[in-house]
Amino acid sequence: MPRVMNGCFFSFEGPEGAGKTTMISKLESLLRERGIDVVATREPGGVRIAEAIRSIILNCDYTEMDGRTEALLYAAARRQHLLEKIVPALEAGCVVLCDRFVDSSLAYQGFARGLGIEEVWKINEFAIDGYMPSLTIYFDIDPQIGLERIRRNRGREVNRLDLETLSFHEKVREGYRELARRFADRIVVIDANRPLDDVFAETTAAVLSRLKGR
């Protein structure tokens, strides 16, 4: 059963280069200006142990990593991050903006790696213990455009997933679209191929609408 939370939990999803990090940073600033307590964080990572796991998962030297190993590592990092950072923030009544959460595992490992969405969900169901975002923003983007953005952004880390083939990233997008169909009540789809200002305006409207409804 979903947990009852004092705060409000938002997750932000999308293929590589979708602009999640930029959107979260801008949204965090806007909410703070309105006097709202905000915690912005990321997966995998956010706390010491999860960041250590991140350094293994995304290391470009570990191209031999098995898909199930990858899924289990993500779930382990997610558990520690949730326990140490997300849950305390929600209990304190904060708005949590999380760059990726369980849907990433379902799209990347469950769908694109072919492990099965239901099978990967079972791993993560154990890890998240009923905590799910009240709203998930999915930034939909053409994989070729997203990867080109990464190539142009010299300040962004290049990780192991960036080295995957275009066909893999196309499967990731297909996986996200499948999740958006299954969980239409939670996932809002935003076209991230458009100019940044347009994407941010729609993102802000979706988040503020959900906050107003609480």
TrEMBL record:
One of its GO terms (biological process) is dTDP biosynthetic process. Keywords: ATP-binding, Kinase, Nucleotide biosynthesis, Nucleotide-binding, Transferase. It is an enzyme of class 2 (transferase). Pfam families: Thymidylate_kin. InterPro entries: P-loop_NTPase, Thymidylate_kin-like_dom, Thymidylate_kin_CS, Thymidylate_kinase. Phosphorylation of dTMP to form dTDP in both de novo and salvage pathways of dTTP synthesis. Belongs to the thymidylate kinase family. NCBIfam families: DTMP_kinase (TIGR00041). This is Thymidylate kinase. It comes from Geobacillus zalihae. The gene is Gza tmk.
